[in-house]
């Protein structure tokens, strides 16, 4: 694997290779297993304008570095990118399209990427989108880069929208007796006006609802959340709360010997999916729209692929060995194929894997 | 038949949108005086002569499938479709077909492709960038009748709509469940979701909630060659490339959206809307900077200048502070307790900001009234001037003051009044350039001024459009915002999807054959009398 240091080296590399597969932090090995170039040294913050709510960084910049810098100005990435502790980079986060539990309130990584600089399959460096928070000029290439797995271009720089960080947070853990009660409670909370930041449901029917905002309003809001659901609960705060969400974001719940897979869900798909997923485990985030599946190593990946396809769910393998990281049902191959023709006519980014 | 340029649309399209129709108009009915001065352009004037020879056999085919009341070919029937919100440009379409469902759209697109006839999809025609301007000799596919809600899942907070559904109808449809659809362009009572998707429309809440693209989860579309494609789905999350996101804002060049899945949000429990009056624009701008620096994240922050306030007040009587140099609207929203905690913080900022008058909306009706004043500002400016251009550009928020000073300087230099209405929270300017089209040369001056504002936006590191799109209006400026490589890439993407350039030709991108031939000469079709100005 070649580690490139500059954008020029990357364009040169792309022009001279038949296949280009990128990695950086290596925290999502199912998506970067066959990489031949590392962007880990293409790192650093280029521009941070806290008053603009924007930050421009090189693709290989670790999330942790960005989050620390933002925290100094009391700002944060609301889409809550996972695996920051493990060493994930912003480029890898965008390329895999990963958002964490915090995506519930303000949306996912797709909603916070404003601009990208990337290298096309012909080794051309282009800059699309913009560095301002609102822009409707030209095709929305930044969106295409989200979850694109480097199949449409290799990102070198990204501009993201950031938000002011809440003053304070609390988490209420709600214990439900059974799965259908838990789902019902979660959906009611999701549609409520409680303005939750995170809304997760684990495979033991436990809901974690996070409240964030002004310090002086927080206790009242927590009390209302407790009343709203009216079931056994526990309020978690301080270091314990931070540790809880950090563990969620690092997928510490995934047992040894299991592979991690992300799945995009509509809440009504959850009950039938859960019953077909055994012996895998499903954790639900974002009020029922984002699922994380732990799938046993010893079970064939094709089996999960088939289950997700049956339920019309698109999935993305994060860890472990897979034939392709994209499993389940993915729409839009006709569009993806045409875009590849324009962006990567020699299919350097998709060989040997098929597009979508 | 007019002499027609042999080349297709070339280079410079003129800037300038004149006098959008008043909002609240639910069908396109141009004012009666509108056509008086119009130069009648024969329907036979086409962007390419070959388009014309192709049209007749297409119309023959369509006649077999559509009743006469849904296939319009008579000049009088076509007149309402000659223009959109960018009324400075008008083109006679070859025909208009009023489709009723997705299968009809697919049929029409396939026939257009087969016959090589360009087509333009159209909703309510509110585009301020000429996004639905017809192609001469081409077909307009009118989507207003496709206005059904196909599926609504309140528990999943998603709704599936046809493209002709009106923006505000979505929020009305879901209000009973305490939900709403966030993107709120000023034309919301009229404009359609299909057009919002094509042009990635914005509104007053984009800093916090993003634009249309951020609320579109899935799209079923027909490509310009008739192939059907499904992008995204019903999940708020995506896995794999965000292809639905890539489709949004493609200005019709990727085909026509047939079904659109939208994300819905729970209605905020409480709003706190403040209207502040200032004796200078700078103070209002500084107030916005202070709010941002405080860590508050208001749902909206809007500024109007003196002229805009006066116009709006005359039209809407929302109780705006007439005589003020600037009015600032700041709106907090959220749970009761959270808003209650944020109010003193906002109050302190506003008190310190030098506002000489502060008004807090006392009721939902009062709040709606304040917003009515703001959203009606565009059309209200029509009272101040016979004509005006609505401009749409973005600058980094911290450079708003600089940008406004430059707009004022330009206004003085050109001797034209400019009213300013802007989404201060996201740096999105809407200078309204006032002129009188009856005065020789004034339209041209207004267009030059508008162009200078766009170049300023580029220079300050912003964008030539925050929410209206490039359309016909800003074709000339897109290559100034992006470099050659970026333009080439966009053209290549278009070529792989629509090599014949049938879908919404003349918008966003120049024809491939004309790339590199840009000049500042008048638009050749305009010279040839094919495109005309009202």
TrEMBL record, chain A:
Keyword set, alphabetical order: Oxidoreductase
Keyword Membrane: no
Single annotated GO MF: oxidoreductase activity
EC number(s) per entry: 1.-.-.-
Domain of life, per lineage: Bacteria
InterPro entries, per the entry: FAD-bd_PCMH, FAD-bd_PCMH-like_sf, FAD-bd_PCMH_sub2, Oxid_FAD_bind_N
SUPFAM superfamilies associated with the record: FAD-binding/transporter-associated domain-like
All copies of domain FAD-binding PCMH-type, residue ranges: 1-165
Name of the protein in its database record: Putative FAD-linked oxidoreductase
Naturally occurring in which organism (per UniProt): Adhaeretor mobilis
TrEMBL record, chain B:
Region (Disordered): 513-534
Domain FAD-binding PCMH-type: 89-267
Protein keywords: FAD, Flavoprotein, Oxidoreductase
Pfam family, one: FAD_binding_4
EC number of this enzyme: 1.-.-.-
Superkingdom of the organism of origin: Bacteria
UniProt-recorded name of the protein: Putative FAD-linked oxidoreductase
GO molecular function list: FAD binding; oxidoreductase activity
Transmembrane segments: none
Organism from which the protein derives: Adhaeretor mobilis
């Amino acid at each position: 694997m070649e580690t490139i240091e500059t954008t020029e080296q990357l364009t040169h590399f792309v022009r001279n290779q038949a296949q280009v597969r990128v990695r950086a932090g290596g925290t999502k090995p199912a998506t970067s297993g066959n990489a031949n170039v590392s962007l880990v040294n293409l790192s650093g913050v280029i521009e941070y304008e806290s008053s603009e709510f924007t930050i421009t960084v090189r693709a290989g910049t670790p999330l942790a570095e960005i989050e620390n810098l933002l925290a100094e100005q009391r700002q944060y990435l609301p889409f809550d990118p996972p695996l920051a502790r493990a060493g994930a980079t912003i480029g890898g986060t965008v390329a895999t399209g990963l958002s964490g539990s915090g995506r519930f309130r303000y949306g996912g990584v797709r909603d916070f990427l404003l601009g990208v600089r990337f290298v096309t399959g012909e080794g051309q460096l282009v800059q699309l989108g913009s560095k301002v928070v609102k822009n409707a000029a030209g095709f929305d290439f930044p969106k295409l880069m989200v979850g694109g797995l480097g199949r449409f271009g290799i990102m070198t720089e990204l501009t993201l929208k950031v938000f002011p960080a809440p003053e304070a947070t609390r988490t209420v853990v709600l214990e439900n007796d059974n799965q259908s009660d838990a789902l019902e409670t979660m959906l009611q909370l999701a549609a409520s006006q409680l303005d939750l930041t995170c809304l997760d449901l684990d495979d033991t029917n436990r809901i974690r609802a996070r409240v964030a905002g002004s310090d002086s309003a927080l206790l009242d809001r927590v009390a209302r959340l407790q009343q709203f659901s009216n079931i056994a609960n526990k309020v978690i705060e301080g270091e314990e709360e931070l540790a809880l969400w950090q563990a969620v974001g690092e997928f510490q719940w995934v047992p040894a010997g299991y592979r991690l897979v992300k799945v995009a869900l509509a809440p009504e798909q959850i009950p039938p999916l859960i019953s077909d997923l055994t012996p895998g485990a499903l954790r639900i985030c974002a009020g029922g729209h984002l699922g994380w599946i732990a799938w046993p190593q010893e079970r064939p990946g094709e089996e999960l692929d088939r289950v997700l396809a049956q339920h019309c769910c698109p999935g993305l393998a994060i860890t472990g060995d897979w034939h392709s990281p994209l499993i389940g049902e993915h729409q839009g191959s006709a569009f993806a194929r045409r875009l590849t023709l324009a962006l990567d006519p020699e299919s350097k980014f998709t060989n040997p894997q098929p597009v979508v | 038949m007019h002499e027609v340029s042999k080349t297709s649309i070339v280079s410079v399209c003129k800037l300038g949108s004149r006098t959008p129709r008043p909002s609240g108009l639910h069908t396109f009915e141009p004012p009666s005086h509108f056509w008086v001065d119009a130069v009648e352009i024969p329907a036979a004037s086409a962007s390419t002569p070959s388009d014309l020879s192709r049209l007749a056999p297409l119309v023959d085919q369509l006649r077999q499938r559509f009743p006469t009341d849904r296939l319009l070919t008579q000049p009088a029937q076509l007149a309402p479709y000659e223009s959109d919100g960018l009324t400075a440009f008008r083109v006679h379409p070859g025909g208009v077909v009023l489709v009723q469902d997705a299968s009809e759209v697919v049929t029409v697109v396939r026939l257009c492709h087969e016959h090589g006839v360009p087509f333009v999809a159209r909703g309510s025609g509110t585009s301020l960038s000429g996004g639905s301007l017809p192609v001469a000799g081409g077909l307009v596919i009118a989507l207003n009748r496709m206005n059904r809600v196909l599926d609504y899942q309140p528990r999943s907070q998603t709704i599936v709509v046809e493209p002709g559904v009106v923006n505000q109808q979505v929020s009305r449809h879901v209000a009973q469940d305490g939900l709403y659809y966030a993107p709120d362009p000023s034309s919301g009572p009229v404009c359609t979701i299909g057009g919002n998707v094509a042009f990635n429309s914005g509104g007053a809440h984009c800093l916090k909630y993003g634009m249309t693209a951020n609320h579109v989860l899935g799209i079923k579309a027909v490509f310009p060659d008739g192939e059907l494609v499904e992008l995204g789905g019903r999940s708020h999350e995506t896995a794999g490339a965000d292809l639905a996101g890539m489709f949004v804002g493609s200005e019709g060049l990727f085909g026509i959206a047939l079904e659109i899945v939208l994300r819905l949000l729970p209605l905020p429990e409480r709003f706190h809307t403040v209207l502040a009056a200032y004796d200078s624009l700078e103070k209002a701008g500084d107030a916005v900077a202070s709010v941002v620096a405080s860590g508050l994240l208001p749902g909206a922050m809007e500024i109007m200048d003196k002229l805009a306030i006066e116009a709006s007040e005359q039209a809407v009587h929302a109780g705006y502070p007439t005589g003020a140099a600037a009015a600032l609207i700041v709106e907090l929203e959220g749970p009761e307790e959270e808003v209650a905690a944020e109010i003193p913080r906002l109050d302190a900022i506003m008190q310190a900001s030098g506002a000489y008058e502060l008004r807090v909306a006392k009721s939902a009706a009062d709040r709606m009234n304040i917003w009515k004043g703001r959203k009606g500002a565009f059309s209200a400016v029509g009272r101040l001037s016979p004509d005006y251009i609505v401009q749409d550009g973005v600058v980094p928020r911290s450079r708003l003051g600089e940008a406004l000073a430059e707009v004022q300087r330009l206004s003085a230099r050109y001797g034209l009044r400019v009213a300013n209405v802007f989404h201060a929270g996201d740096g999105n300017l809407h200078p309204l350039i006032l002129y009188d089209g009856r005065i020789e040369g004034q339209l041209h001056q207004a267009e030059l001024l508008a162009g200078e504002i766009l170049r300023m936006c580029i220079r300050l590191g912003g964008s030539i459009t925050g929410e209206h799109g490039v359309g016909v209006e800003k074709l000339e400026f897109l290559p100034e915002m992006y470099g050659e490589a970026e333009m080439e890439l966009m053209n290549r993407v278009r070529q792989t999807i629509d090599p014949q350039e049938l879908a919404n030709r003349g918008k966003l991108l120049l024809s491939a054959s004309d790339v590199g031939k840009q000049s500042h000469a008048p638009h050749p079709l305009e010279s040839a009398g094919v495109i005309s100005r009202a």
